[in-house]
Amino acid sequence: MREEKEMMQEKEWKALSDRYIAGTYARADALFVRGQGSLLYDMEGKRYIDLCSGIGVNIFGAADPVWVRAVTEQAALLQHVSNLYYTEPQTLLARALCQKTGMDRVFFCNSGAEANECAIKTARKYASDRYGPERNVIITLKNSFHGRTVTTISATGQEVFHKDFGPFTGGFVYVEPGDQGELRRLAEEYPVCAIMAEMVLGEGGVQALPQSFVDEMMKLAREKDILIIDDEVQTGNGRTGRYFCCENYGLKPDIISTAKGLGGGLPIGATLFGEKTKDVLTPGTHGSTFGGNPVCAAGALSIVERVDEALLAGVEERGRYLRQELEGAPGVLSVSGMGLMAGIETKGPAPEIVKACLGRGVVLLTAKEKLRLLPPLNIPMELLKEATAILKEEIARASS
Ligand SMILES: *Cc1c(COP(=O)(O)O)cnc(C)c1O
Question: Which atom of ligand 1 is nearest to 260's Cα?
Answer without folding.
Answer: 7
